[in-house]
């Protein structure tokens, strides 16, 4: 038969006529009618011809015969540590405190800015940091020098005044009658040998 694609041939005088099957055209039904000419695919879908029909290859987040339906991109729970908001072609994540990244997948290093300085070791927690201070320092960021005299290292009874001389160092200024590193020694004046003046009279 001179007709292609299952076309029906009708004999005529010194000629023939092809009645084409659905989806085909031209003299011998050799040309497929493109179902994509009408641009049936929506939202950026790519159209492919098939027999008497069309097929839409949809972009991400769209589905349906003509890519007309929006897929809720949050149904797969892409935000690991945060809340998801679907958009027209994607989604956005609102991260919980302490997390960052497109999908809230990255833990924020709370110690990145070195909040404890050189006087402490920093530990990053989920939403804050913690400083372990070196001896002699205190405070949230280990930036306060401890006054060792506040711990009363000198003997309360024998000290006149405590003088802080640096980190964990001090001097005790003793009251009269006391001595020792901490003014803890009560001097026994009876053990002292005062100078005695002896007057000798001659007659």
Question: What can be said about this structure in brief?
Answer:
With 203 residues, this protein is mainly beta. 0% of the residues lie in helices and 36% in strands. It has no helices and 20 strands.
CATH topology of the domain at 148-187: Laminin
Characterize the overall form.
rod-shaped
Q: In the CATH classification, which architecture of the domain at 148-187 applies?
A: Ribbon
Count, helices? 0
Q: Determine the CATH superfamily of the domain at 148-187.
A: Laminin
Largest sheet: 2 strands, antiparallel
Spatial separation of the terminal alpha carbons: 176 Å
The share of residues in extended strands comes to: 35-45%
User: Approximately how much helix is present in the residues?
Assistant: under 10%
Highest CATH level, the class of the domain at 148-187: Mainly Beta
Annotation, overall tally of beta strands: 20
Identify the quaternary structure here: single chain
Q: Unreliable segments (pLDDT under 50, ≥5 consecutive)?
A: 196-203
Order of helices and strands: EEEEEEEEEEEEEEEEEEEE
Radius of gyration: 48 Å
The averaged pLDDT comes out at 85
Q: What class, by secondary structure content? A: mainly beta
| Sheet with the most strands: spatial strand order | 1-2
InterPro entries: EGF, EGF-like_Ca-bd_dom, EGF-like_CS, EGF-type_Asp/Asn_hydroxyl_site, Growth_fac_rcpt_cys_sf
Domain EGF-like: 1-30, 32-68, 70-105, 107-143, 145-184
Disulfide bonds: 20-29, 58-67, 74-84, 95-104, 133-142, 174-183
Keywords: Developmental protein, Disulfide bond, EGF-like domain, Glycoprotein, Membrane, Notch signaling pathway, Repeat, Signal, Transmembrane, Transmembrane helix
